[in-house]
């Protein structure tokens, strides 16, 4: 199929390359053009401007946050450049509020819209093993399903209203962050009692917590290796902010999310940015002064 | 082998029955004798008094908490009734402080001691699929290893000092409770945005959180079925208290554990006791008044 | 002096009436005209439109929140209607971000700007006993000082940059809310041990906490009388949000503010709005199920 | 009157000296005898052993914690040395549990017991300006009232059951700690926005928070002067522990107390002990990396 792909960060590049490998004709665009080169070498057409990437049947986008989605599709007018009936599959992790707004903007223009945020880090994207959440009109989701399957190991249908996929993504990222924090604090406790974090986490992730969300981060915590970032601290902080905003909008107290917000903020206030959000383990250890105490 | 088994609650009974099935000669004792009957029918010898159950090579015990362990082994003098060189395998989830104290009491009497707390609920115990943490002298742990394998799918060696196994157990239970709380809050958020808890948790436990610690509790939360208790609220509250005590002893701030303590306490203050600690999901929903709001 | 007054809620009306009593010529405007009547009967001139209220030397405004300030002064263009050199004294509790933005908008138009948020509830405003924070050019603050003294018992100069007054106001309201929460939890604890909230709070506010911020709220908590609102729950929730936003902007973890946010949200989610934020005491009591337990 | 005084730390010494100044005949005892010297020079009789200090009409005690009270009065048998009908006025801040137990021990021996914990730091004790909480039989409280008035500016009667005074003391100390934390976080926020802690706290403690509990600690926070300790960090940590224990006993969630516990623990884990618990302000500033950022 002839498709466009907007946004070629680590995630977007990996996803677009899987579309290429599956035999689709992919036209890519990225604000900073350097990112298009590796995809060009895999056979992608490179669009000179964003509107040249929205000429096929479907356009995928993987942008960083609300602001980027708003800039490209609304402010810069990309939606206006799309042909009626064209499908836009939006992979970004965006707020529930923007999810609703942008769905309405598509509807007004006779465009089809699928919210399809993903779970998985760049290595999972490269391997085509993403978990893809998909919400939108069933017929439209069905149409793009084969394309999604080229990028993910599983597609989770989440109903008609696009924002449903975004809520699940936001709530899910909150759960991941909670998992990191629980490993962070539990490992600090274990260390203080003479059990190394690596030993402790090996038991946990080999038994009750033998799940992807734990195993990857446990490795980073055990090795105290927070850089380069798999999932960068500022993005994690943004995502907890999305959970708190969604909670605010529907008046749902989330004490655990509030706690995570503060701990991420403590890490951020030190000035580091290009670190993984697993740095929460360093925050927990620092609070207990474990290094100073030789524990 | 000829062994004793002290403490026949849901967990102990299941574990003792697996020792019987593995062909060992098991003498059982329980403070309330009714619990011995099913085991007798499986071939166990029933001891009239606790000291008659500590006559073989090894005695296992699975008691409810610090108080019960202290009562049986120290106050009532069971340690004094044991022959020098005998091995005591203590499966209870006890405090780090008691773990140290009771190890010393064994050493003083020339008794061997293995701390062997377990991960797994009664159904896992019945199926012989427990994860067993084991700390103590390597030679002694090796001696009881075949017996432990009759009860668990995996034995995790944790070094010489017995309390190391208890710390891992305590920190692990804290992680389980954190997992429940994160599902509780995230599900409340999803519900408030129109995504049912069952739908939401199906995605999460089918993807990133495809691990035993999540799947069992997710089912309870999705079905709002907290009774009968798989792991009872008061026990969970006790275990978070053990984590906070261990943190106090080594001066490790655990903000997440403090939050869990309060939420468990909120559930307890309503007067319910025989409910699973997954009732944390009800606390989160009640705080958001989801039922009153028809969400 | 000839002055204008924009915004005649409970606070603004009381403040404007004190300007009248001090002999100033006051022209008032309020979006909903009914609120102007009592002031007209005290001698105020009533402006038909907002721009007719900004014709004197100084205009005061007391609007509810960022949105109202933005609507009136920026979107509806009131700043453009003001004469160069005129002074605007903004009493609203607004975000630090808007404080900076609106100060710049004044400067661009050659208008003088004083940020002057106040501490005190409507009864203090009526009695002219407000504490008024004032930040802006010293000469300009000096010019309006006699007017401020007509409304407050004390004016606190806070330097040149207007947002400094807003930060102090936001941080101060956070402290008030923390004071309420500490009375709420401490009273719940006292009640559970048989000491009535009234008895307990009488001791505390008669000794260590003999301060206005405590005495007023203690009365509400002791009498469980949360309506009518002296300071309404949604405003309090907004103000804690301002503290968290200011903390976000400068990366300052505020765990206590996060806790307050959740507890206010719990109160709000029940659907009540026209209650005092001292309702935090009801939240604390409900969590402990004190009423159900007859405590 | 002829009275005894047990326990001559900073508080006890100041209190005993006021009894002397009021003309009473005071026999003092302290575990470490050096502390008796200044009082001897004021005219106190020095008892060689504790039982020699309990020979008059009333004995006062001001010991550090549960353990010290238990050791002196129960384990070392001082209660058994007291004459039937003698009154013991216990000023220590002890747990509700011990408060109940020790009241019963007095009753069994025909001794009178008044729980009389105090609010006030050593300087207030020296000046006779303590707030004294008093619970016990009204006739007995009346008998010791003139003596209490020699030590405090106000005596607060709290009813018959002695533990009532202890609950109020524990809940009150929790409120003080919450006040410190709120100043700590609010000051960090103000600093991050360019308003010095001293300027900010001057406004707050000169207006809404013009109360002893704030003014003393505000001074320490503004000057970042945490040593010597007016109220030492480990004692503060102990007292928050007493609040959490009392909450545990009656199942009252206290999220704010949990937060304080963790922050005090963070301060303690750094190894400092002889600092005031106002050091919470340093914890808040460190979390935000204010010094590193030059804020």
UniProtKB/TrEMBL annotation, chains A, B, C, D:
The keyword RNA-binding is assigned to this record: no
Keyword annotations of the record: NAD, Oxidoreductase
Gene3D superfamilies for this protein: N-(1-d-carboxylethyl)-l-norvaline Dehydrogenase, domain 2, NAD(P)-binding Rossmann-like Domain
Annotated GO MF terms: NAD binding; NADP binding; oxidoreductase activity
PROSITE patterns xref list: 3_HYDROXYISOBUT_DH
Domain 6-phosphogluconate dehydrogenase NADP-binding positions: 2-156
Record-annotated membrane-spanning stretches: none
GO BP term (any one): organic acid catabolic process
SUPFAM superfamilies per record: 6-phosphogluconate dehydrogenase C-terminal domain-like (SSF48179), NAD(P)-binding Rossmann-fold domains (SSF51735)
Record-annotated 3-hydroxyisobutyrate dehydrogenase-like NAD-binding domain positions: 165-281
Active site per UniProt: 169
InterPro entries the UniProt entry points to: 3-OH-isobutyrate_DH-rel_CS, 6-PGluconate_DH-like_C_sf, 6PGD_dom2, 6PGDH_NADP-bd, HIBADH-like_NADP-bd, HIBADH-related, HIBADH-related_NP60_sf, NAD(P)-bd_dom_sf
Pfam families: NAD_binding_11, NAD_binding_2
Descriptive protein name: NAD(P)-dependent oxidoreductase
Species whose genome carries this gene: Dyella solisilvae
